[in-house]
Structures
1.
Amino acid sequence: MIDYTRRLLDLHISQATNSLHKAKSYSYSDKHKEKYQSDLYVLFERIQEAITKSNPKEDTEIFKYKKHLDFIFKSLEFLGSSTLNLIPYEIVECLRYAMSDWVDETDNYIIVTSLINNVEEFSYDPEIAFNDQLYSDIKECYGGLTFERKLVQINLPRSLSRDYLSSVVLYHELGHFIDIKLSIMESLVLDLEGRYVGEIFSEADINQIKVYLPFFERIESKPFADLIQVHLAEYFCDLFASQYIGEASNHFLSYVTEKSEYYDSTHPSTTNRIQVVKDFLDGKDNIIVKIISEATKRVTKKDLVIRFQKIISDDFYNLLPVEISSVNQLHGIYDYAWKLWLASTEELEAKMELQKPISSEKVYSIINNLTEKSIGNFITLHKWNKVYLEKAAI
Amino acid sequence: MEQSILGESSYLNGENIKRLLEERKLFIRPLLEMSQIGGVGIDFRLGYDFLVSVQGRYAFINTSMNNDAGGENERNIHHFFQATRRQIGETFILHPHQTVLATSLEYVKLPKDCILKLNMRSSYARLGITVSTIAQPGYCGCLSLELTNTNNNPINLTVGSRIIQGLIYKMSNTTEYFDVPRKYVCHVRPEPSAIALDKDLKYLNELWKIDNNISDS
């Protein structure tokens, strides 16, 4: 009689063989990615050896191997879209700078992107980076095999991978990585529950919180506490992103959610999210900004502050890339690009040396090109100066 | 400024070029070293994006709107090029007799009265690499480099290296780059030929149909 589950494990192994074979064509400039992929081949060999040796028949053991094969598939999915030809390199470099503000050991992480055939699919996938149990199982089962670096998996639409206006959303997605890694909102929910139970909040505070977290008074119930944490995480990520990109993601968010005034199980209402970001940027009192800022400071010892420098320049109007002089200005390029996109036709036509009338498509193309080149030039100069100035000093 | 034998137009020496940069009439971003500006021109560096010519499913690259030989036009050209990228400092191999579209690392904006002519630097020309590019007055964007290796051996090039020399000619008058519709504006990556946008091809196609009693149906 055929062992049904075991036969499906064999199918999974055949599929993995095929996927790993195809992945041999992936070529990386980044040796960390290459090393990660080499480790996947080693892992697969050891899984095969272990299966041959143990000949698993029990579901529990078979599913253990399934999880390890899933890890290979998930890793390949992201690595495959992260070769230099495909990865949105300039945007990812900006995210790496932002990450370094919050994580000391950035070298332990590789930001990878999966290009998804869905125009709304901007998301963070925490499946691999924080699965400590999985890494520990792999180490134990396969002779101490370790993955030195973890993948930070960010999904974005394939068709918008070089769209520098909508890509501001990726800062929000990076915020999810930071939040989960440092357990900021997890800590905040526990703190809020304690303060609520201890009747530390005034009625006025509670009423204000309820505007943004309608279930707040049910925080003692686990399902509601979870929902509150999910909503707080979204507010946190909005604030995290706005440190670097100002209001830029609000423009995109309000459009894609059709200015929704309603919350759902995964997100607060768009109107509330936009208000929180506005109040943060304008330095106005807002209970959500206050509690999230306090929690962030408590957990990370870092402040939520505006970390981008506004770019004051007519360079884009003059059809020139901006000469970015600092990392803060680097993040500021998105705010600058959005300002140009939102400028009136009259202003564009008065300032830009282009044949009139200027079409939106032309402006879109120019903004994307100049943003990419401005970031690219900063990265090039940074790398060049590092070597050139060091050599000159000798 | 040195006088041309043709009259008031002239080519610019290094000092003139530096002055244009200072006066913010000429823009080169990034300019990694001021020494790129030599006595008679500017050295430009190889950029990191490439369009490599490949053999596709179409029999030939169609630069005509006539359909007597089959094939479509604009989309057809894209089938013959594949995008690839390197990082600065990495190498790119140029195979014998292959055409590769690259760009300069530098984004350039020219004054309205200056034309830029590009040649391979002598050290690269001696290896058999050719380029043929002119940028018109007022042009803005990375410079398109159509590199061909006429050598029988592959040659690897370092991204970021100075491979091109540009000579700037000052004209006696200014021209407005955007007075006519432009196919290439602020490009920072190599773009395949936009030959299909040439209006005269439409007229020639009409003429061909009329001459040969060819109907659209």
2.
Amino acid sequence: MKKIVFLIAILGILVALPVFGKTVLGFPVVMTSAGQSDEINTVIYLADEVGLKYDYCDILSLAEFKAGVGLAGAKNAPGKHVAYFSAEPKGTQFKTFLIAIGASLKGMGASGLSVDDEVNRIKALIAYAKESGMKILGMAIGGEIRRGLPGSLNEIMIDIVAEHCDVIVVTSDTNMDKRFTNIAKEKNIEFVEVESAFDLLEAIPALFGL
Amino acid sequence: MFNDPQFFQTIGYTLAMAGGYIVGKIFKLSTEICLFIAALVGALVAGSGLDVFRHFAEGSVTYFDIGLIFIFATLFMNILKESGAMDLIVRWIIRAFGNKKVFFLILLMIVMLIPGALTGAGSISVLVVGGTVSAALSAMGLKKERVAAIVFIVAGLSAAAPPINVWAMMTCAGTAVPYVGFTMPLLVPILILGLFTVLFLGWKGKISNIEEALKTIPEPKGLSVWSVAIPFIVLVALLSLPRIFPFDFPLLGLPLSFALSALVAWIMNYKRVKVFRVMADTVAQLTPLIATTTVVGMFVQVMSFNGTKGLFSLWIVTAPMALLYIILPFVIPISEGLLTYGGVAVLGIPLIWMFNARGINTVIALSGLTLLWPLGDGLPPTKLIGRLTVDTVGYTGSYGKFLKECIVPWIAITVVGILMVAFSNQLSFLMG
Amino acid sequence: MKWSKWIILAILLLFLLAGGIPLFIQRNYKETLVMADGVTRVLRLSDFFEPLKGTMGDTNIYEFQGKDPGGKVLILAGTHESEVSAMVTAFMFVENLQVQAGTVYVVPHYNYSGSLGSQPGGGFPLYYTIPTPWGEKKFRLGDRGLQALDQWPDPDVYVHYPDGQLLSYIDARNTNRTWPGKPNGTLGEKVAYAAMEMIRNEKIDIVIDLHEAEAMFPVTNCIVAPEKSKSYAIGAALYVKGREKFESHVEPSPSNFRGLSHREVGDFSDALVFLLEAPCVHLDQISGPKTNDLMIVGKDPFINVAAEKGLLFVPIDDRGWTIERRVGQQSSVIQEIVNQFNKKNPARAILFTAPKHAEVVEKRMGAFFKDPDKAPKSRIAYE
């Protein structure tokens, strides 16, 4: 009996390895939303569930990002949500930058951001992350409603984030047209596709070596 | 796609109902009886059996409250008319503003807009101030049909005017959209259209000689200002107090508010008014109207029961957008003319959901559409407000001639309403 | 009076009787249910607010107290009495629930008055039935709002208490616009106030309000949750999608739309509140003849056309939105919300078992209702 369990475990790992990727992302982690849609809350839920420690601000600014763990003491305010759980001391530079991709006019309105504000904010954050050698993890898990015609808000967010990622995680309904698959192939980005966000309960620990 | 047996079946029911209506008309029966026959046929062919009686009972109370409001509001006005109060008011208006035409017309428009805006019912504007306004307009030498057109169109606008727009509210209630942000999208076009209407239709009129004009209106002898003012003060108080103290003032409802005001009006004028005769006259005057709303309720119930309502809603929401811009100006007023408020359920609710699915700003689009619904209150078979208007104004000519007078403002309202749908997103700044 | 007038009067009376008697019978019809052994008490809403006693706003509350201590969950069905799967879910719970820890309260007809008559102008049947192995189980089909017989007259505009927001006069009788209620208000406001009193005094942890929404309505097939309940809702949506393979997404409760349970219950008490919307087609304006099948089997050719045109917010397929799928969804989402709560509040964990989505779909709805004729008298309850 024990042998069988062991065999299944080995098999499971062998099967999971190619799916859940090779890169192990480092800590500390900071998370933000590109487009202020609701998926960032799903990501937070998943992170809490699997015990991933992170700092989070939905409208993270460049200064807060540069300040490292503790986000320069950023506080909750109307339209701004902040959380700190990173174990590292304050000021430690982040190793992983997690971006939940998905646009919502309502969400941006609530945070007082225009489309241009949001695009410029994300571009600046990505530039800094690349400069300082952080790994960028892009997550698109909102399903078909977070996709649209070329030039629509959702697609703009994908345009500015996806190709700069080191790892892309998508649910199959968000990748219904294989756009993420193609970007990943073209730019040689590590790619993880899962059936639903529920499967991230396994994929996230694998990515972070938890 | 449209090949399921259910489509042929419901089309069959529609034809059967239309047949019932036509047969009634061939036998020269009244519109109400014809609608009743159509509903009866529609229920029976769809297999209601004896349940048809229950459907009729249920449908007949759909507009029960509206009927009650009509009865008591009309009673209130008829008592005041009988007492001579209306004549007194008109004489006062003419004396005060008779030689300032533009100002006079704008004043009349505002007076007309207020009761309907506050209660959401154009009928209240017609019943409460329509008589006075029409007398003042007649004194300007305008033809009766033109006076009726002004009263009808402005009353329609008053019903759509904020804060209470029943079509928008019913749609909101049916779609769980909050009734928020409608004030400016309704007020701005309504004021523009109201001004256009009174100035366009009223421009030719003028009071050349105030004393001459006053002679045409009988001077009520021995009527004190108070016996005119107090009933109105009571009415205004009963209508506005629930809004000013919403959580402390007892909930009376419009029918009782008008009934109490009517009682006060009678007490103030009990010597001049034979109240039982006025009551009997009022009920007789309104019987056709009440019959209409009752039968329409049954008709809507049957349409829903046998699926014809679903079929019409489906046709509208699946029509291409370009076609909608062409047919909505007709379909919306006709649905109101046929079903009164029932038209909102058939068209308004699915339309809003369809707009929503297509990324159209629903508040602006709905505001635009609600300008069109009141127009239908002048259309047969029900011509609900149209009939009230011609009765109140005292126009006895052909109904068609009255409708013809309405045509220019009607088109203006339609164009504005449809443009609001087409450019809803560009107009969203109106929501503030 | 002339004899012709007497004849007209007689015909009128006959009409009134023939139309009115079925409505009278429906208003007095009692639904029968066989309580599960776990029902510890049957409370009344008026136990929490005396003035409701003897009114049509009073209603039954079935209490299931587990052996072990734990938190409390209140499940409200019948806020809108035309949203069928809500009541059927509540009935299924009352007949089948087993509670190990904590307390579960089930209210099958929160808007009891609304259950006593159907919607004027709606053209619906007066009852709906579900086939069971022992015959048909019959339910009253009610209206969205309170009956005019029980709350009348309507205001010309409904002013929400305490916010002052103006709502349609129709919503004055909508028990999902009268939260958080008013002790000296209308019947609808009193009902909401009584429920709030219960939630506050009994220290209810979770309130779940069951609804159905049209396929054309954007807020359908979802869990509506305010900010403070949101992470629980996200978790529940995630788990039902992952484990039970059906969709129920999360919708935020708008802060500028007052009177709704998912807004006011959370704002006026410590409870976490959720409103569940299962998709149905019988309430869609575009659906065809209003039959029992439309409500129970949930298929309609008109709806299919709208689906092909991309006008719907839920997928439509050959299965139809059957009562089994809708009730199964309500039941599974309720259980998953409670699981999420238990994870974060282990000291107040509420443990119970109820049929889940797959089980209801597989065994069919009727399998979960017991034959009242074969049940001991002590277990029979009437609604």
